[in-house]
Design a protein that fits this description.
Helix content is 64%, strand content 10%. By secondary structure, the protein is of the alpha+beta class. The chain starts with a helix and ends in a 14-residue tail after the last helix.
């Protein structure tokens, strides 16, 4: 007789169960990554991110400075603190996925109301000790999606830390190369001062011997003062750049250079290996930039938050239980007869909350749209930055090559000017012009080398740490 009833119940429960499961699955969508038109990777090209890209410059002083900066920088410490915070938030949300068990103990003494219980008033004691547990059945994925969002936020904070380190390392390298260039300019200025002093002393003796005019002597004297002025300018620039570098590294200039940290002399030959840019860089290398990875994780978090917010439309089901001992007398609390337990299920269904849930879902969806836009913008900006950085590096490389070739021409020009002057075919002004051209050419060449190195640093930076062919280390 009961089979039809059971059968009818089965036919009712089964569809309801399927509806519940389908609804639960609908609240846990897969990650939807925006489809972006990216250039294809060159055929057969395989490159990887170089973790310590600055080591490609083969400069131990630079390596030391970057290591010090990464250890002491407040910006890196701030990013690390945010990673710790995000990790703690993940721990908080993850804990909601498991039952919560608490120990409890209590003692009370009270008088019961005769009007309520219909019995004479009496004073009673109550003692209890036991364990209580509670667990939310996460059928709709509220906790699960909140945990997924927290996990994505943790990854985003870790990528932000990578970005802070990348930016700091690039800043140290750029400032270090600027200091190198100024030191080279200072050395060139000092040599020029000594050369022009010798030239002035020669013109002075020639004037006193009646061989040359006072005008030639005074012109040589003026050139000494000009060279000395440029020497002082470079000395000031060196002091300023040392101070800026010390701020990045986290040490005073005196402490920094008391340790014997002297910038290595610039050598263009060391840029050959560091500046060997692959013929084509695959787009997936660019997508590993910390800022793009951070934007993508923020997008993942926003999508998970939408699902978590939508779960508020459905009832929250939780289970609670108690297992312990209860007694009216302390002496009998631990007797076997004092055992007690309870088990209960609770369901909380939202009925009316003045549109709160709908507003929270709309807020989450708006945040998702913003995250999508941020991700698209980050990718577009990354490709624009990379294209500009590649062109700037190529231009800097060509400029350095042109100025390097010009040096031989300027030296030959000065030789011929001296030869013509000594043989009486031209005035001393021609010699001075040639000396000025050579001096400015040397300074321009030093600055071009700095520009080339900075352009290469920028290229490493926009690529999220540069490139590395598998099987090679960061120094090759």
């Amino acid at each position: 007789m009961h089979k039809p009833i059971i059968s009818r119940a089965g036919r009712t429960v089964l569809p309801l169960t399927l509806v519940v499961l389908l609804a639960a699955c609908g609240l846990n969508p897969t990650y939807d990554k925006p489809d972006l038109p990216l250039p294809d990777a060159p055929a057969g090209e395989v490159v990887e991110v170089a973790p310590k890209w600055w080591e490609a410059f083969q400069d131990p002083v630079l390596n030391n400075l970057v290591d010090k900066a990464l250890e002491r920088s407040p910006s890196v410490e701030l990013a690390m603190a945010r990673v710790d915070e995000a990790r703690a938030v993940l721990g908080i949300t993850s804990s909601e996925q498991l039952p919560q068990v608490n120990g409890s103990a209590g003692a009370s003494r009270g008088q019961r109301s005769e009007s309520v219980y219909g019995a004479p008033q009496s004073i009673a004691n109550s003692y209890s000790v036991g364990l209580s547990a509670s667990w939310e059945l996460d059928l709709w994925g509220r906790v699960r999606n909140s945990t997924a969002a927290a996990r994505a936020n943790l990854l985003a904070s870790e990528y932000a830390l990578d970005g802070a380190r990348l930016t700091l390392a690039a800043s140290v390298a750029e400032q270090y190369f600027a200091l190198q260039s100024s030191l080279a300019g200072l050395e060139t200025s000092r040599k020029t001062v000594e050369t022009r002093k010798a030239s002035y002393e020669l013109r002075k003796k020639q004037f006193e011997g009646g061989i040359t005019s006072e005008l030639d002597m005074r012109q040589a004297e003026t050139e000494v003062a000009t060279a000395r002025s440029q020497e002082l300018d470079f000395a000031t620039r060196v002091n300023q750049q040392e101070s800026a570098l010390s701020v990045l590294v986290g040490q005073s200039p005196r402490e920094l250079f008391a340790e014997g940290i002297t910038p290595t002399k610039q050598e263009s030959s060391k840029l050959v290996a560091a500046g060997t840019v692959p013929s084509g860089l695959p787009s997936d290398l660019l997508l590993r930039r910390p800022d793009i990875q951070q934007a993508e994780q923020n997008l993942r978090a926003s999508q998970a938050k939408v699902s978590a917010a939508r779960a508020a439309y459905f009832p929250r089901i939780s289970l609670t239980g108690f297992l312990g001992l209860e007694s009216g007398q302390m002496s009998t609390l631990f007797d076997s007869a004092s055992g007690a337990w309870s088990f209960a299920g609770n369901l909380a269904m939202p009925i009316f909350n003045s549109g709160l849930t709908a507003a929270q879902v709309d807020q989450a969806r708006a945040q998702e749209k913003a995250a999508v836009a941020t991700y698209r913008q980050a990718v577009s900006q990354a490709f624009a930055d990379t294209r500009a950085a590649l062109r700037n590096y190529q231009a800097a490389e060509q400029k350095h090559a042109v100025l390097a070739a010009e040096q031989d021409v300027l030296k030959r020009q000065l030789y011929l000017a001296n030869l013509r002057y000594n043989n009486g075919y031209s005035s001393y002004l021609e010699v001075l012009d040639s000396e000025r051209s050579l001096f400015q050419g040397e300074l321009s060449l030093e600055d071009a080398l700095r520009q080339k190195r900075v352009a290469l640093v920028t290229l490493y930076k926009v690529l999220g740490g540069g490139w590395q062919v598998p099987g090679q280390d960061g120094k090759s």
